[in-house]
Amino acid sequence: MLLQKTLERITGKPLQTLAQQEVFRPLGMRNSSFVWRGEFDKDASFGHSDAGKPTEVRRFQEANAGFSLLTTATDYSRFVQALVKGQGLKPATAKLLTTPASTAERCAKPTSATDPFVAWAYGVGLATTSRGPALWHWGDNGDFKGFFIAFPDTQESLVFFTNGANGLRVTDAVLQLFFGPGQYRAMQWLAE
């Protein structure tokens, strides 16, 4: 939120306008917005609580960089692929996405021990996996969960969204299905 307010102050433009100009339009993300658009009604999905009960569709009226992104897996995959390829980024900025900036301390269980397989770059997690180095992140809006992993060396990536509070439980199975057996580290880090 602090970065959003800083960008809005510097540019004099609201986040939605900046996102359209700098990200959504250049990457062909036609189904993405930080605020609700009427055409989303036809494809909107109900979320589900951890008990499996449907929740109401949230129609965000104000942009919030932390939680109001409305998008599709296809659009978000375009974004992830742009990150992996450094598209639209200065080389120095692209390098920040693959350079550890800090250890990945666990918020839920603070410990002095760090995970030797996970670190934080600027904006994404880094994982040393059995397929090589990976960028990853997850999203959590309570009744909706999302996840992506990308392998810069091969430029492969996977994005998936779920409409349930328990949605991330499928992550390891989905990774194994798409990339084969191996250690992907992200979910082990999230689970601990």
Descriptive overview:
The protein has a single domain, classed as Beta-lactamase (3-Layer(aba) Sandwich), CATH 3.40.710. The longest helix is centred in the first third of the chain and has 13 residues. It has 192 residues and is of the alpha+beta class. It is globular. The protein has a six-stranded antiparallel sheet with strand order 1-2-3-4-5-6, with helices on both faces. Helix content is 30%, strand content 17%. The mean pLDDT is 93. It is built from six helices and six strands. InterPro entries: AmpC-like, Beta-lactam-related, Beta-lactam/transpept-like. It comes from Hymenobacter luteus. This is CubicO group peptidase (Beta-lactamase class C family).
